[in-house]
């Protein structure tokens, strides 16, 4: 497996006068205005938005005079640029001149604060953490027979929170859970489950609050492999934990064991994927290599009720892969880009099969793309059932007769979108809307990423020849 490129770290400037870092194209940076013995970088607010967070500022006490240290100044400008470009409704400033290790920069927001002890060592990840942490919460969920914890992301300032369905429902155990939400500053609020979608593993929780700090959402179709990825959540119930890595892969499809959906006939985009990547007659008796995050019990013990259960279905989910360290409890938390914007909701990790299911991160973490998470959340908030596309083919266990990797079609349902597009048994589906699909699981996951009625381009191979077909996806019933 090829290594993903690392993000470059900020380097100290050599010139005597500090230079401002470039702003995003639509937000020109105002000039640097020295004040006394400090260098202050005022940053213009972002354009107003419906979900813009409260003003955010970073300040520092006036330091004693000391030899000039340009590295801290450059780091401060970089963080100021990041905060200013993402924060609307106010002005952010970073004071970063003549910093010493004992001096503190504190970033305050409506949802909490993050203390920067030394701007000389601050990095882009520091800025992302400062922006993203106030928008991430910890969830304590309890049901009739079990309890657990996970993470969530503040979606709106009036209290809507996105998390995973398996967190909010205790892996389908309860539709009426008791939920306690802990903000990044330690404030505790009761939460109520608004709704959940087991096929995207997304749920929405509501708290009665105002002036929360909502996350800024990026377009997950515009991220690149190798981009900076920062995960924020509560692994092992440790709130406000920040880890970093890169985007390792895009448009993955993973098949996850789940008890949140009923066992029914399997079909791409259909209700149950039980026979995907399984031999005929094979039953779900072993832990999935892509497990849901384990919950943390009230005393720190692992709650494994969602593992190794009989009568479990398999669900194909489209994901972003990252090597940012992800562990049990990160579930439902944020995966952010280098601008502090949400690119995914952490959902699963790959770990070696163990008898007790307690293996941690192996450098393979997965997140539901932000575009899908937000589409589902918007539907749940509106009181609607989220829509998922249906192609209308089943998988075959027979080997492909072509040299192309993909999902081999077993049967084509009469009258289905696949039949209307001309797909036949034995065809190998290789892409959905340009995204490569190297397995039937990925085909199913990518189809479900789109709402019913969406027109997509299907790439497929028949007898060694590559074709494309335009398909209007049907409606998956659930």
Key structural traits:
single chain, 478 residues, mainly beta, 6-stranded antiparallel barrel, globular, disordered N terminus
Structural features, described:
- The structure is a single chain.
- With 478 residues, this protein is mainly β.
- The chain has helices at 70-86, 124-132, 165-168, 370-381, 417-420, 440-448; strands spanning 33-35, 38-43, 57-59, 92-95, 105-109, 112-116, 136-142, 147-154, 160-163, 178-182, 188-197, 202-207, 228-233, 241-258, 295-296, 302-303, 313-322, 334-336, 342-349, 365-369, 389-390, 393-395, 407-412, 428-432, 435-436, 455-462, 465-472, 474-475.
- The strands form 7 sheets. It has a 6-stranded antiparallel beta barrel.
């Amino acid at each position: 497996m090829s290594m993903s490129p690392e993000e470059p770290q900020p380097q100290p400037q050599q010139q005597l006068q500090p230079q401002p870092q470039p702003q995003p194209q639509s937000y020109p940076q105002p000039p640097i205005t020295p004040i006394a013995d400090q260098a202050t970088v005022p940053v213009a607010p972002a354009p107003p938005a419906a979900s813009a967070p409260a003003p955010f500022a970073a300040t520092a006490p006036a330091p004693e005079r000391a030899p000039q240290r340009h590295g801290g100044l450059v780091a401060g400008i970089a963080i100021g640029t990041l905060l200013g470009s993402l924060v609307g409704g106010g002005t952010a400033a970073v004071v970063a001149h003549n910093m010493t290790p004992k001096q503190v920069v504190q970033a305050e927001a409506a949802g909490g604060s993050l203390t920067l002890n030394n701007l000389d060592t601050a990095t882009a990840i520091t800025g992302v953490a400062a922006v993203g942490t106030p928008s991430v919460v910890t969830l304590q969920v309890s049901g009739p027979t079990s309890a657990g914890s996970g993470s969530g992301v503040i979606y709106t300032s009036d209290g809507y929170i996105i998390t995973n369905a398996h967190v909010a429902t205790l892996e389908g155990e309860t539709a009426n859970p008791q939920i306690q939400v802990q903000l990044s500053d330690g404030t505790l609020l009761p939460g109520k489950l608004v709704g959940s979608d087991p096929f995207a593993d997304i749920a929405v929780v509501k708290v009665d609050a105002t002036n929360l700090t909502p996350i800024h959402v990026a377009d997950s179709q515009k991220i690149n492999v190798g981009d900076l990825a920062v995960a924020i959540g509560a692994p092992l119930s440790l709130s406000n934990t920040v880890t970093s890595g890169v985007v390792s892969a895009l448009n993955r499809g993973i098949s996850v064991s789940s008890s949140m959906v009923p066992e029914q006939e399997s079909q791409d985009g259909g209700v149950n994927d039980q026979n995907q990547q399984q031999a005929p007659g094979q039953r779900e008796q072993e832990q999935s290599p892509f497990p849901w995050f384990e919950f943390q019990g009230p005393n720190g013990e692992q709650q494994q009720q969602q593992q190794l259960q009989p009568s479990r279905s398999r669900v194909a989910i489209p994901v972003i892969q990252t090597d940012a360290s992800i562990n049990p409890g990160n579930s439902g938390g944020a995966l952010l880009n280098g601008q502090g914007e949400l690119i995914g909701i952490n959902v699963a990790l790959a770990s070696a099969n163990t008898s007790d299911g307690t293996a941690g991160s192996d450098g393979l973490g997965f997140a539901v793309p932000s575009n899908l998470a937000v589409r589902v959340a918007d539907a749940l908030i509106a009181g609607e059932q989220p829509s998922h596309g249906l192609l209308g083919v089943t998988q075959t266990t027979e080997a492909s007769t072509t040299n192309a990797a993909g999902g081999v079609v077993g049967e084509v349902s009469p009258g289905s979108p696949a039949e209307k597009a001309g797909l036949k048994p034995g065809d190998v589906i290789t892409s959905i809307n340009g995204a490569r699909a190297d397995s039937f699981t990925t085909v199913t996951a990518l189809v479900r990423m789109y709402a019913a009625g969406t027109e997509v381009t299907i790439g497929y191979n028949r007898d060694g020849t590559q074709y494309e077909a335009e398909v209007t996806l049907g409606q998956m019933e659930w």
